[in-house]
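During the second year of the project, the team shifted from modelling isolated chains to modelling whole assemblies. The rationale, set out in the original proposal, was that interfaces cannot be judged from single-chain predictions alone. As a representative example for this report, we include one of the complexes processed in the last quarter. Its constituent sequences, exactly as entered into the pipeline, are reproduced here:
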Amino acid sequence: MDINYQFLEQTFYLVLAAVPTTLNLTVTSLLLSLPLAFFMALVRLRRTRYVSGFVGAYITLLRGTPIVLQILLIYSLLPSLLHALVGTLGWTINVFDWNPILYAYLVFTLNTTALLAEVFRSALGSIERGQMEAALCAGLTKVQAYVHILIPQALVTALPNICNVTVNLIKGTSLAFLMTVKDMTAVAKVAASYGYNYIEAYLDVFAGYIIICSIVQVLFVFAESHVGRFRLIKQK
Amino acid sequence: MLKITNIHKKYKTAEVLKGVDIQVAKGDVVVILGPSGSGKTTLLRCLNFLEHADQGEMEFGADRLQLASASAREIAKVRKKTAFVFQNYNLFQNKTVLENVTAGLILGRGIKRPEAEVIARKALAKVGLSDRETYYPLQLSGGQQQRVGIARAIAVNPDVILFDEPTSALDPELVSEVLAIIKQLAREGTTMVIVTHEMNFAADVATHAIFMAEGNIVEQGSPQDIFLHPQQERTRKFLRRILPQVEYNI
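Output from the structure prediction step:
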């Protein structure tokens, strides 16, 4: 088996050029998910009957189906539905012109929200009730208590899991090619298809993901030691 | 200054408070005694809305409010006029000792940080922990943590400090350092309501003692009345069990 080193190198630059798309997908989905997931976690912890049940069902549904299936369903169903809706409303928008990355944002946000909601729920649930009570007694509002006391503590338990979700999301965005989004994987596949250099292309993508995911993990390690300093100090 | 009338509290089917009245005047040290399950902690927690009473009226300074239907603003106001010292300290784990004390001042009351730190340092000096400012709660002993808890309470200069069994979670040899500080506060005329099982301390520090059982106030009066000349059999039984020497004192 011969490796086409020239192709390997050229395609690597192509893959690198697509890194922003992968990061864009990841960061946008994460940023959209964070507040949604946090809200869902609060709802779940409150155990308000109907809303909590609804959120629980949502999480079960999203966690219980392969992301490929979610992509295929949403990408084949939603545009047609939207098109029909737009038609009945009498608007003159062509839904099929929309950038497919919008659908990618949607799928990955929905998915990540479900995962993060559980991460936040477990992390917030691990904080003693007394922390909130002490904050209220000290005259803090509930929002202040969350911002200054509860969330900083919950992050210590949550960060390793958030890191997991993030890394999985990065890797998951490789499925965006199914929605014709030109991320790292898609670019490499297209490049490979001309001369059937799939091995080289896949090696490039392989390296690309490893680099990105490693950097992300290192960043999380720093973040962990920062938010966990009140715990780490004790071990010194 | 603080007056609660006819407070009722029910958990599902268990009635924990069955119409309790309590009055606290400025400078009072009210001690609440009673067997576990008598409702004394619940009573204390209802005073600043950590628990929501089902019924009852509160007069606090010039304010008058219904415990069951108090608005968020009324509750916030009561909380800013009180401070609470917990059985298990509940220091903010992610904050240093100094930050624990300044949080209520800066976040709760909008005092500027430099000024808040001056106040906090004074409070910490009072509890003898000036040298622990930069420590985190996990680095402190239980007694030290509770002293920070007290510093956090006095720093906000509340009208009344509520103590919920402040020494119950402490190792025996650490109890005295915490009690000494509370006694000092009592000498300075700090208004306090204290739920405690430390009978000698209670007899020593109280200006008014309340004995509770099964959600009712069985008996109240001066510490002498309650500890030395209890009128009710229920009170005597409790004191005999917890403080055998009282029998011989009478």
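The mean pLDDT of chain B is 92. The first strand of chain B starts at residue 2 and ends at 11.
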